[in-house]
Specification:
The complex is a heterotrimer of chains A (135), B (816) and C (223). Among the domains of chain B are: 343-513 and 534-562 and 630-697, no CATH class; 702-775; 779-816. Helices cover 66% and strands 3% of the residues of chain B. Chain B has helices spanning 7-22, 30-57, 82-87, 90-95, 97-108, 143-166, 173-192, 196-214, 221-252, 257-264, 277-292, 301-304, 310-319, 324-331, 333-337, 340-363, 367-387, 391-418, 436-450, 456-470, 477-503, 539-554, 565-568, 579-583, 601-609, 638-646, 649-677, 681-688, 690-697, 702-777, 782-800, 802-814, and strands at 67-68, 76-79, 120-122, 125-127, 135-137, 140-141, 588-589, 594-595. In chain B, 49% of the residues are buried. Chain C is mainly α. Chain C has 3 domains: 1-91, Four Helix Bundle (Hemerythrin (Met), subunit A) (Up-down Bundle), CATH 1.20.120.1200; 93-131; 171-223, no CATH class. Helix content of chain C is 79%, strand content 0%. Chain C has 11 helices and no strands. Chain C has helices spanning 6-27, 31-51, 55-79, 83-86, 96-127, 129-132, 135-145, 159-170, 172-193, 196-202, 207-222.
């Protein structure tokens, strides 16, 4: 798999390596859909990294919020893009974002309820100390 | 004030909700429950009064036009039909093609026919209203609903007050008033709704409340049975009604009265035995009316419905709900008048019911049964009026009947209360000494129903008979008249019999017998049957009687006929106060094809205010005899013959008035002869006319016939189906189960000895080999699992873009 | 969809702010700091939403996330004891092996995603070339038809109206389901977070009896 991905980085570096006045610079001055997607992807990865590496369960939850936000950013960006292409029901992306926010709120409420219950019973918020999944 | 009519149905509903939802939990006292119920109805009544005044009589009156609350935006779309169009063809709408189309369609509809001037704006697209079914919840105030509102809330108020006395000490006090309030709400929705679907909601609502209230004493079998019977019988009618509504929507594309009638106006009139769509709609509607208003052959439920408490009988099964059929027929008079056939059917069914029920009433001994059959008979009279084209007179009779029949039912209730729940008239007699107020008020009702001048019943009944005789709407008017006259005689007879057996003569209540089950058990149902001396009822019961007695005496004066022109100075005196003038704008005139009997509605309003000139003929007898056009059914017409024999129109009318007075007198005198002067006569004549007497006493065995022809057959069918289920289907199931068991034994054997052996060997081998691997993967740390998810995600991305990645690799390696 | 002029400047400002705040969220030692950085990240994303013409979602983001969810987070952080982590006595990250593998795969994933965006967006552009040409002008024209605000300089957007229309027309059932989801979440979190004492109070059980019972059950479980 690593072998598969190595050329990608090479490709990206090659793409970036074309100096001012190039297409890359042009699109940096005038950000378009792809820039928003890139930002979304970066936020997503930061969130994923947080979920995977942190020990504090509350910070893990916050990272999940970050992931959801990245998804929202994608929804909104595509919604705008569809509006520009004159698509039917172009604001569907925004509607989705509303639902994502709803789910995030519900998830936060339940998750933090679980955290409190957990803390009350196990006196810890470190994820690696909560290992009763393995019986 | 008419802008606030939406409050009128809401108040009883709120009262009912308070009583029904909180009454039990918080143990409301009887005073509180009664206060809430009576207060809400009283407020409703006051609001109705002011609304009708402001609608029709104040300086800024809207009458004769109808007022619909949605005109002021006080409505909401109850069944939005827009969704259908939105999901379909959204592409077309985007391209603007649909918008063009809808604009064009809208332009085709002339502006005066658009009920909603702005048409409809759905997502920015103008759409003609007719293209989609949008049903709004709005109330309509016009002449017809005004009268019904006033009657329902006014008579309802009297009966509510009465009921607070009558239901005293009943354990279900709160339940009773919750049901009653709910009933008032449904009834008001029925008569005030502005479309067929609202009428249907009210229709079913009153049906439900009727069911609940008939079965109020649900611990008594006959009450429970009666409630079921009423409900099921009404289902037949409702089925027809529902079909008619579907047909209306399919034909006219809307359920709103105003829209439907405007369209229906332009349909051709369907002659005798022509079955066009309007005839079918009218047939469906009439089936519904038959069910609700207890006409032949669906009348069987109403007499049994007397198992409910007496105020219920008075309110629901005499004054209001059973007249819903009349309301509906009058409301849709445009449709009915388009079908000659259905007019004839309505008239004949009405006449037949009137006579049929009146003859049964003669022989019944239960005071409430007599009144019940009398109600059926009077409803027949009303339908008779509608059938001969005199819709206004039908509604007039609804009104007077509501007064005097509610009065008599409440009087009967008072008697039953005073007699400690005795309903058999053979055990009454001589009560006038003990219950003077009840007696005096009852007399007013008695004279009214017999049709003695000037009591209210006279005016309406006389007009019905006169219209039957003079009708040019249908053939066979004379037959309807003859039947009506006989029925009216019977009415006078059995009502006098009732009064005589109850209030006059010997006091028979002292010699007690073992009681049969014909009385109304009251709550606990354990009251001992000693010989009680009857007592007058409390003030809360007497006061409504007095009010209703006044109404029953004078209520008819709003409809004085043209025969009394020499006193009153005009055909229909009183301008808008006269019911005939007042109702005129809602009646369709087949001659001019417009609403309003003779002129357009506006001119009628004008004429009614500036006393009509002498040469104009009465609007009630449509159309004027001389102007009989060729389109009308030819045949023998009693009134015209009388007129040509006597010379003038007025003389002919007076002849019929005298006839109806004479028959009333004959009926009364016969009954007095039978039950006061010669008490031995009834038995002699019963023996002499034994077959007739038995037939009448057994209500012509209609229940038995239905029981044999329908109930038994249904049960036979059910039994057959059950047998099929038990023998064939269960047999098949059991057989297959047997086969399965056999098969499972065989496979079980194989499984146990052969497959299991194999599996055990292999599984054990695999498990021993793999388990350390799996065990290591199960770390129990959530984040390890999450990491595996991410690995999967990476793999998915890699696979998804495999082709592109390979392309990129190629591009790099080739150096481009 | 191309941002120009100041819009582009703001785009870079806010997107870089969002990413840095996100990074700090993940990396902060103190959970409260984490939460504050997350708030700033969310606000930056909300600003991006405004740039994308989704004012309604931006508002919802600020109200619901920043105003609601994050306050909840802060409350919970205060409820549970995080002193050990703050004072540096405790490791904030997982075991090194887990961290290393995670970061490796995250890198792979971000590479894959960027590659996908890069190639995918070019294809998308090619496909919608005709539709996109002149879309900016069209948008400007459309903006001209909007009603002016009270100040006369700005225009009143119909974006929120459109979202509402779409929400109730195409997604009314999901909308209702979402409301039920929220209700369930409320009830669920209340049930989860209540103490033994509160539980006992609701069930009309004497707390001491309940405690005894719990102890008994724990004994049973251990045996």
């Amino acid at each position: 798999m690593l072998g598969l991905f190595a050329p990608i980085f090479a490709f990206l570096i090659q793409q970036a390596d074309v100096g001012r006045g190039s297409l890359m610079w042009q699109s940096a001055r005038n950000p378009d859909l792809s820039k928003f997607l890139v930002i979304g992807a970066l936020l997503f990865i930061i969130g994923v990294a947080g979920v995977l590496t942190r020990r504090n369960i509350i910070v893990i939850f916050m990272s999940i919020e970050l992931i959801l936000n990245a998804a929202n950013l994608n929804f909104i960006a595509f919604s705008r893009y569809l509006q520009d292409t004159g698509s039917v029901n172009a604001v569907a992306g925004q509607v989705f974002a509303v639902f994502v926010i709803v789910v995030a709120a519900a998830e936060a409420a339940i998750g933090l309820g679980i955290v409190i219950a957990l803390y009350r019973n196990k006196e810890t918020i470190w994820v690696d100390e909560i290992d009763i999944l393995k019986w | 004030m008419h802008r606030y009519i939406w409050l009128i149905p809401l108040l009883p509903l709120a009262g009912a909700a308070l009583n029904g939802l909180l009454g039990r939990k918080f143990r409301f006292s009887e005073k509180l429950i009664g206060g809430i119920a009576v207060g809400s109805i009283a407020l409703s009544f006051l609001l109705s009064l002011t609304a009708v005044y402001s609608y029709a009589f104040s300086s800024h009156a809207i009458w004769p036009a109808a007022y619909v609350t949605s005109q002021d935006g006080a409505s909401f779309t109850w069944i939005p039909g827009g969704a259908v169009n939105i999901t379909q063809g959204s592409e077309e709408r985007m391209s603007g093609a649909m918008e063009e189309e809808s604009r064009r369609k809208l332009a085709e509809i002339p502006p005066e026919q658009r009920t909603n001037p702005q048409a409809i704006l759905v997502s920015g697209v103008v759409q003609p209203r007719s293209s989609i079914l949008n049903v709004e919840w709005s109330y309509q105030l016009d002449a017809l609903s005004s009268i019904f509102m006033l009657v329902v809330t006014g008579v309802g108020l009297c009966i509510f007050v009465f009921a607070t006395g009558y239901m005293h000490d009943d354990p279900g006090f709160y339940r009773f008033f919750a049901y009653m309030g709910l009933f008032m709400f449904s009834m008001l929705v029925l008569v005030m709704g502005s479309n067929f679907l609202m009428m249907f909601v009210g229709w079913e609502g009153v049906g439900l409340c009727s069911y609940l209230l008939i079965g109020y004493y649900f611990n008594r079998k006959e009450a429970a049975d009666a409630s079921r019977k009423a409900f099921l019988t009404n289902r037949i009618g409702d089925f027809g009604f529902a079909l008619a509504i579907f047909a209306v929507i399919a034909t006219f594309g809307t359920a709103q009265y105003t829209d439907v009638f405007v369209q229906a106006k332009s349909y051709p009139i369907e002659g005798l035995w022509q079955w066009g769509i309007l005839s079918w709609i009218a047939l469906g509607l009439f089936v519904g009316a038959c069910g609700k208003s207890a006409q032949l052959p669906l009348h069987v439920w109403l007499p049994d419905a007397m198992a409910g408490p007496t105020p219920v009988s008075a309110l629901i099964h005499a004054a209001t709900m059973v007249t819903a059929g009349l309301y509906m027929v009058t409301r849709t008079n445009v449709i009915f008048q388009h079908s000659k056939t259905m007019m004839l059917v309505v008239a004949l069914v009405g006449a037949a019911t009137a006579l049929f029920a009146a003859t049964i009433g003669i022989t019944q001994n239960d005071i409430k049964k007599v009144l019940a059959y009398s109600t059926v008979s009077q409803l027949g009279f009303m339908f008779m009026a509608c059938g001969v084209g005199a819709f206004v007179i039908g509604i007039f009779h609804v009104m007077t009947h509501a007064f005097f029949k509610a009065l008599m039912f409440l009087g009967a209730g008072s008697v039953i209360h005073g007699m400690h729940h005795e309903q058999d008239m053979r055990r009454m007699g001589g009560l006038k000494k003990y219950m003077p107020y009840t007696y005096m008020t009852f007399l007013a009702g008695w004279l009214a129903i017999c049709g003695i001048i000037p009591f209210s019943g006279f005016w309406s009944k006389d007009e019905i008979l006169w219209n039957a005789a003079s009708t040019s709407y249908i053939p066979l008017g004379w037959l309807v008249w003859v039947v009506g006259v006989i029925a009216a005689t019977c009415t006078a007879f059995y009502m006098t019999r009732l009064v005589a057996m109850t209030f006059w003569g010997k006091e028979r209540f002292l010699n007690t017998h073992e009681h049969d089950a014909g009385h109304e058990a009251h709550g606990d149902g354990t009251s001992g049957h000693h010989a009680h001396v009857p007592h007058e009822s409390p003030g809360s019961m007497v006061a409504p009687l007095v009010v209703l007695a006044v109404l029953a005496t004078l209520g008819g004066l709003v409809g004085i006929g043209p025969a009394f022109k020499f006193i009153t100075g005009s055909d229909h005196p009183g301008g808008r106060m006269n019911i005939v003038n007042f109702m005129d704008p809602i009646i369709w005139n087949p001659e001019t094809r417009e609403f309003g009997k003779e002129h357009g509605a506006a001119t009628v309003a004008h004429a009614a205010e500036t006393t009509a000139p002498a040469e104009t003929h009465a609007r009630a007898e449509v159309p004027t005899p001389g102007s009989e056009s060729a389109g009308h059914p030819e045949g023998f017409n009693l009134a015209h013959s009388a007129e040509s024999a006597l010379g003038t129109h007025t003389r002919a009318e007076w002849l019929f008035i005298v006839i109806s007075l004479v028959i009333a007198a004959v009926g009364i005198l016969l009954a007095v002869l039978f039950y006061v002067w010669r008490p031995s006569l009834p038995d002699i004549w019963a023996a002499r006319l034994k077959p007739l007497y038995i037939a009448s006493y057994n209500k012509y065995w209609v229940d038995e016939i239905y029981g044999w022809a329908i109930t038994r057959r249904t049960m036979d069918l059910a039994r057959a189906v059950y047998a099929f289920d038990a023998k064939v289907i269960d047999g098949a199931v059991n057989g297959s189960a047997w086969v399965t068991r056999l098969a499972s034994r065989i496979t079980g054997g194989t499984d146990q000895y052969f497959v299991d052996g194999l599996v055990n060997a292999i599984a054990a081998f695999i498990l021993r080999l793999m388990s350390p691997l799996f065990r290591a993967a199960q770390t129990g740390f959530t984040q390890n699992y999450a990491l595996v998810m991410v690995m999967g995600l990476v793999a998915v991305v890699a696979l998804f873009f495999a082709a592109d990645i390979i392309d990129a690799v190629k591009a790099i390696t080739t150096g481009t | 969809m191309i941002l120009q002029g100041w819009e582009a400047v703001f785009f870079w400002v806010f997107s870089i702010a969002a990413i840095f705040a996100g990074l700090l969220t993940v990396m902060a030692r103190n959970a409260v700091h984490s939460a504050l950085f997350l708030i700033s990240s969310l606000l930056s994303v909300a600003a991006l939403f405004v740039l994308l013409g989704a004012e309604f979602i931006a508002g919802v983001q600020i109200l619901v996330y920043v105003g609601g969810v994050m306050v909840l987070f802060l409350f919970v952080i205060m409820l549970v004891n995080v002193g050990a982590e703050e004072q540096g006595r405790s490791e904030i990250l997982n075991k090194p092996r887990q961290v290393a593998v995670s970061l490796g795969f995250c890198l792979l994933l971000v590479g894959g995603l960027l590659f996908a965006i890069n190639t995918g967006y070019r294809g998308l552009q090619k496909r919608d070339e005709a539709k996109l040409s002149g879309s900016a002008e069209q948008r400007l024209l459309q903006d001209q038809t909007l009603a002016r605000g009270a100040t006369g300089t700005s225009r009143i957007t119909t974006d929120t109206q459109k979202v509402g229309n779409s929400l109730y027309r195409f997604a009314s059932l999901p909308f209702e389901i979402a409301s039920i989801l929220l209700l369930v979440a409320i009830i669920g979190s209340v049930m989860l977070a209540r103490t033994l004492k509160q539980e006992a109070a609701v069930d009309d059980v004497d707390p001491e009896v309940l405690l005894a019972k719990v102890a008994e059950e724990a004994d049973l479980a251990e045996n």
